[in-house]
């Protein structure tokens, strides 16, 4: 394939408000057809006719309750969004939102219709009111609850703002000269969507690799992004080495191997769970929340995750399977997992001796399961990067105001380095063990 240009690439929305609205209109049409069939089934209609007015009156009360509850949810959602993000984001819920408009106005219309027709004598309209009420209760209301939960998510709000801004740029400005556009070389497959790399379909990628191997047996595929990383339109997904030309069908097959969504998920993405616990921990120790106990809880569970990872071969089963087909996948290292788990929490909690002690205690527990010298060094490096060496001196300047706080942290460090030295001896690293014992002694002697 000759070099192509990314000028024709456009962001493809994952799911639009128009799609939702059209789906709901289609479901409404099904209910209308059901009503038409019901009133023409004379025997069934005659059997239900005496009970319809009472049923409709009962449903009017239920429908009004649902409508009031819905508006309460909307106002609470607007308040949360305004406080958490920005008052200007409130328009995200109202501007050009077809689903929201369809739900609210159709709910009002259904309630008004049912309220009016219950006083009439037309049984067919009573039946229509019940069918529309069922549509509101069992279709619109549950979907709207999911819609609110989805739209309160920061990822949804930021994506919506970005998509609308990019669409406006596309409508306002022309593309620049072709010479300024980025060329896409042979052997490179780029993304046509923006979002998080949720998962990789190994089977589709293997199919693509086999098709390439038929004509270019020496070629291999290299996935360029981690699972969970953010992909932009035009970003490279796969490179073929050495570069070879591929047809559009094969390029589409490779692109379909990558699920790019607006949310990360736990599917294949271990770092996502770590990220969530870190976010909760950071928020808990922020001045606005001031809940260090929750942060401590998060640190302990991060320790559970990292301890489990410390005993595993971090080449995933999917990566090993793909490697058999000359496909390499980018995966996080043990050091990346450790840094992701603890660096940010320490950064924001380094002046709280409870947070620091908990971090050191968790790292001490993780060390007990490490049977590899490299991973032992990584954990030791994590403590060294806390820059607590001043605690090894009697007169060192530290972030902790009282001698009691300083001594608590020193005792945690003494336990940590004692455990680290024991593990270093166990893995045959005597020099490393001696270094850790020297640090243990320094912190022990500095206790006031």
Tell me about this structure:
By secondary structure, the chain is α+β, with helices and mostly antiparallel strands. The protein has 3 domains: 17-162, no CATH class; 185-261, Pyrimidine nucleoside phosphorylase-like, C-terminal domain (Aldehyde Oxidoreductase, domain 3, Alpha-Beta Complex); 287-315 and 332-445. Helix content is 63%, strand content 7%. The protein has 15 helices and 9 strands. The strands form 3 sheets. The chain has a 4-stranded mixed sheet. It has a 3-stranded antiparallel sheet with strand order 6-4-8. The protein is extended. The termini are far apart. The model is unreliable at 1-15 (pLDDT under 50).
Radius of gyration, taken over Cα atoms and rounded to an integer in Å: 30 Å
The low-confidence runs, each spanning 5 or more residues with pLDDT under 50, are 1-15
The number of helical runs is 15
Query: How does the major sheet shape up?
Result: 4 strands, mixed
Strand order of the largest sheet: 3-7-5-9
Please estimate the helix content: 55-70%
Q: How many domains make up the coordinates?
A: 3
Let me know the number of strands.
9
Query: What's the overall geometry?
Result: extended
Question: Keywords for this structure?
Answer:
alpha+beta; Aldehyde Oxidoreductase, domain 3; 63% helix; three-stranded antiparallel beta sheet; 7% strand; extended; four-stranded mixed beta sheet; disordered N terminus; 448 residues
Give a summary of the structure in a few sentences.
The chain is of the alpha+beta class. It has helices at residues 17-40, 42-84, 98-117, 123-151, 154-172, 202-215, 248-256, 270-284, 292-310, 317-323, 334-349, 353-367, 373-384, 403-426, 430-445, and strands spanning 4-5, 183-184, 188-190, 195-200, 220-223, 230-231, 236-241, 258-261, 327-328.
């Amino acid at each position: 394939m000759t070099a192509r240009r990314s000028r024709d690439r456009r962001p493809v929305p994952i799911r639009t408000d128009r799609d939702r609205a059209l789906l709901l209109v289609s479901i409404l049409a099904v209910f209308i057809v059901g009503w038409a069939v019901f009133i023409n089934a004379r025997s069934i209609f005659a059997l239900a006719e005496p009970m319809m007015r009472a049923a409709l009156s009962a449903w009017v009360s239920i429908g009004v309750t649902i409508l009031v509850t819905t508006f309460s949810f909307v106002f609470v959602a607007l308040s949360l969004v305004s406080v958490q993000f920005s008052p200007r984001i409130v328009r995200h819920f109202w501007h050009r939102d077809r689903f929201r408009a369809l739900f609210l106005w159709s709910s009002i219309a259904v309630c008004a219709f049912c309220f009016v027709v219950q006083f009439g004598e037309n049984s067919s309209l009573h039946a229509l009111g019940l069918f529309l009420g069922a549509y509101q209760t069992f279709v619109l209301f549950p979907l709207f609850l999911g819609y609110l939960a989805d739209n309160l998510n920061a990822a949804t709000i930021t994506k919506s703002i970005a998509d609308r801004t990019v669409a406006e740029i596309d409508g306002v400005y022309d593309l620049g000269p072709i010479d300024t556009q980025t060329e896409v070389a042979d052997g490179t497959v780029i993304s046509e969507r923006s979002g998080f790399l949720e998962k990789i379909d190994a089977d589709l990628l293997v199919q693509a690799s086999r098709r390439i191997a038929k004509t270019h047996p020496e070629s291999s595929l290299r996935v360029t992004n981690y699972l969970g990383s953010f992909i932009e339109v035009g970003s490279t997904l796969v490179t073929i080495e050495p570069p070879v030309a591929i047809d559009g069908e094969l390029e589409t097959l490779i692109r379909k191997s990558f699920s790019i969504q607006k949310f990360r998920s736990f599917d294949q993405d271990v770092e996502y769970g770590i990220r969530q616990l870190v976010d909760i921990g950071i928020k808990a120790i922020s001045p606005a929340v001031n809940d260090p106990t929750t942060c401590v809880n998060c640190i302990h569970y991060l320790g559970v995750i990292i301890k489990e990872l410390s005993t595993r071969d971090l080449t995933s089963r999917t990566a090993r399977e793909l490697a058999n087909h000359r496909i390499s996948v980018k995966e996080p290292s043990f050091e990346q997992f450790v840094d992701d788990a603890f660096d940010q929490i320490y950064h924001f909690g380094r002046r709280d001796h409870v947070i620091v002690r908990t971090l050191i205690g968790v790292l001490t527990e993780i060390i007990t399961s490490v049977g590899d010298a490299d991973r032992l060094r990584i954990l030791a490096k994590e403590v060294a990067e806390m820059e607590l060496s001043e605690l090894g001196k009697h007169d060192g300047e530290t972030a902790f105001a009282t001698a009691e706080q300083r001594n608590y942290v020193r005792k945690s460090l003494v336990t940590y380095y004692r455990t680290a030295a024991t593990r270093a001896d166990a893995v045959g690293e005597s020099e490393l063990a001696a270094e850790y014992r020297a640090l243990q002694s320094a912190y022990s002697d500095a206790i006031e």
